[in-house]
């Protein structure tokens, strides 16, 4: 009987130790799982950008957007303005700003389309645009009356027929119907030049924009010039311009419709 009791107690103690061992193993496994899960969550968090980084990217994006908006506003302000060529024989460049496509005269008036990095883009005629440096254009020009411009023209070209200037602003086909076929026609990237006896017409977009009298005696009209330089003088009127370009002891005279 005593042997059975001792055997029963031994079996009970063995089951108790087994249960304790299983419990300890279960606790250890649970603890390992908790630690592993925590490590996994931490790893996922570290893959996200820091809050400061997000804020910096947002500020930079807003700054870039503001700069682009300001640039567009500046471009809009310059677009649609009319500017004058401020120096004789100004080179006009293609879009590469290297290739010369035209040579503009003092006082030539063009629409400015935009300004970029020290250059301005001009609408030369209906189909052609070109670039000049900002230093070679001006947006302001002192002016006199058209009567003063006409009187100054008569002073420097006294032998010209006053009726000739009536063709300014007219369609070239109508003018040719009146004056006849020109002796010669020359063209550049911007204008056509129709040569008649004693003068030639500058034609742009099929309209007579100017009349030139070449090899005239050098003379100075009694009118204050808008700009007077060694290579040329320019007199700005309300709707007309007078330009004088001296060379080899003579000069070329241009009367132009704006």
UniProtKB/TrEMBL annotation:
Keywords: Membrane, Transmembrane, Transmembrane helix. The chain crosses the membrane at residues 21-41. Residues 52-77 are annotated as: Disordered. Residues 64-77 have a biased composition (Acidic residues). The keyword Membrane applies. This is SH3b domain-containing protein. It comes from Exiguobacterium mexicanum.
């Amino acid at each position: 009987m005593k042997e059975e009791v001792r055997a029963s107690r031994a079996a009970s103690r063995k089951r108790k130790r087994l249960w304790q061992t299983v419990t300890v193993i279960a606790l250890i496994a649970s603890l390992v799982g908790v630690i592993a899960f925590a490590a996994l969550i931490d790893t996922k968090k570290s893959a996200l950008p820091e809050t400061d980084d997000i804020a910096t990217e947002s500020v930079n994006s807003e700054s870039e957007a503001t700069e682009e908006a300001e640039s567009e506003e500046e471009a809009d302000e310059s677009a649609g303005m009319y500017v004058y060529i401020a120096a004789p024989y100004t080179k006009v460049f293609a879009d590469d700003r290297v290739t010369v496509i035209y040579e503009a005269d003092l006082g030539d008036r063009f629409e400015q389309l935009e300004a970029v990095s020290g250059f301005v883009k001009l609408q030369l005629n209906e189909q052609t645009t070109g670039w000049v440096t900002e230093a070679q254009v001006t947006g302001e020009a002192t002016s006199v009356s058209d009567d003063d411009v006409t009187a100054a023209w008569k002073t420097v070209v006294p032998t010209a027929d006053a009726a000739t200037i009536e063709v300014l602003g007219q369609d070239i086909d109508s003018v040719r119907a009146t004056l006849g076929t020109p002796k010669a026609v020359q063209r550049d990237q911007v204008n056509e030049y129709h040569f008649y006896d004693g003068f030639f017409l500058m034609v742009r977009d099929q309209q007579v924009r100017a009349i030139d009298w070449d090899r005239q005696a050098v003379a100075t009209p009694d009118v204050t010039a808008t700009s007077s330089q060694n290579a040329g003088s320019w007199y700005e009127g309300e709707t007309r311009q007078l330009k004088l370009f001296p060379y080899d002891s003579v000069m070329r005279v241009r009367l132009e419709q704006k």
